[in-house]
């Protein structure tokens, strides 16, 4: 793979407490970082957009192809002991975050696994926007792990009824690619339709 270093996934330590997750650094090869930074989509809307709604080009387009490819899915399948190849994928991209994002949740039951790949050059400790692995739905301060959303950091977790996560409020640029392995194509289509509708109303009401 030209952009992704699969060894970063292979060598990452998997945790099963409080739920199954994997944190890896340097997923993106160092010699392509400048190109990926340059080719990241120029998104003006806040929130996650599906790849169908974003103009992809250059190295970033190639990155999406590698992230959605079978090689990465195979490595993640081995790490989690679950065949992820059978599940369709939904890929979304965010550039701009709003303070209302980051509320504590588990992800919906239609998702099997979620992977986040962060693409920010740096991040201050007290800035908010750092995803936390949480123990319950109420408490941000009691957490197992805090994920720095810096360039090449990857966080993946299996969805469960206790896969609580969230982050403190942040407003501004927060570049991230999210790939969800979803139970059925119908779920993917439904999520895409819902996302387009949400973006439509954001365009009208500016929220």
UniProtKB/TrEMBL annotation:
Domain Prolyl 4-hydroxylase alpha subunit Fe(2+) 2OG dioxygenase: 104-182
Pfam families assigned to the protein according to its UniProt record, in alphabetical order: 2OG-FeII_Oxy_3
Record-linked InterPro entries: Pro_4_hyd_alph_FE2OG_OXY
Identification of the protein by name: Prolyl 4-hydroxylase alpha subunit Fe(2+) 2OG dioxygenase domain-containing protein
Species of the source: Microvirga lupini
